[in-house]
Write a structure and sequence with these properties.
Elements lengths: L3 E3 L12 H15 L11 E3 L1 E6 L7 H4 L3 E7 L2 H9 L4 E3 L13 E7 L8 H11 E12 L7 H5 L8 H11 L2 E8 L4 H11 L27 H18 L9 E7 L3
Parallel strand pairs: 3-4, 3-6, 4-5, 6-7
Antiparallel strand pairs: 1-2, 7-9, 8-9
Helix pairs in contact: 1-8
Length: 264
């Protein structure tokens, strides 16, 4: 790992300003920084890990993951691929339930961020990620938590399931991964979020957002808007939780973050 490359200057996009996306990103990077090499703030350099973002969509996380090295993306839907390539990202088309166009052991870090819940065969995706990882490499996964929190948001995102930490742990261990970190997130907003989901269920209050799963003109699912003041408050809450997650696992939340290792 002696080779180094310059960290890409983050390209801020609209999603970065939304409290949910920003909170997830802060939590992910804070946890990953304690497990895999990241940039050295004094030099602006980073260990040149080989990084793959599986189900990268329009590349919304590629500029964040570039702090760990050279990032490639893979996506099944050609619509977001076109957007990602316009942004200058290297993205291939492929179905992660099938062998992807990369040799075994090609990557040191694989990200599957809010991906496996979309597919009936989530085990096939995890097995393919395992194949692609170099021994000693890591996978980082985010998934929605708890089937009892199922809402219209799951429908417009074409989810198949939501997980508990125990279910996700069992699937990863079955594939052969060793768990490094497993935690719920969105813990601090969980009481309000859960109450809102349950209160909205089956009513006209459930948001009707644009989705590429429902509309051929869309390239990704629209994020539910939040008024500026509320967005700022929730972003601050998300930042605080991200600092906690650097050191502690949380017992409940609307999502799960996991970092696991391929032995070697």
């Amino acid at each position: 790992m002696s080779e180094t490359v310059r960290v890409l200057t983050p390209q801020q996009i609209e999603e970065d300003k939304h409290w949910w996306f920003a909170s997830r990103t802060w939590a992910l990077l804070g946890m990953l920084d304690r497990v895999v090499p990241s940039h050295d703030g004094s030099t602006g350099l980073t260990a040149s890990l080989r990084v793959l973002d599986v189900g990268c969509g329009a590349g919304n996380m590629i500029h964040h993951l570039s702090r760990y090295g050279q990032v490639k993306g893979v996506e099944i839907d050609p619509r977001p691929i076109a957007v990602a390539r316009q942004r200058g990202y290297e993205v291939e088309q492929g179905d992660a339930t099938q062998p992807l166009p990369f040799e075994a052991g090609s990557f040191d870090l694989v990200a599957t961020l809010d991906l496996i819940e979309h597919n009936k065969d989530d085990m096939a995706i995890l097995q393919e990620c395992y194949r692609l990882l170099n021994p000693g490499g890591h996978i980082v996964i985010t998934v929605p938590a708890f089937m009892w929190l199922w809402s219209n948001n799951d429908v417009i995102n074409a989810h198949v399931r939501r997980y508990t930490a125990g279910e996700l742990r069992a699937k990863l261990q079955q594939v052969g991964f060793q768990i490094r970190r497993m935690t719920y997130n969105n813990f601090l907003v969980f009481p309000l979020a859960a109450a809102l989901i349950l209160a909205r269920r089956g009513t006209e209050q459930e948001p009707r957002l644009a989705s590429h799963h429902l509309d051929e003109d869309e390239y990704q699912v629209e994020m539910e808007p939040a008024p500026p003041l509320l967005n700022t408050i929730l972003s601050v809450v998300g930042w605080v939780e991200a600092q906690i997650l650097r050191w502690l696992n949380l017992p409940i939340g609307t999502s799960i973050i996991c970092i696991a290792k391929k032995p070697g």
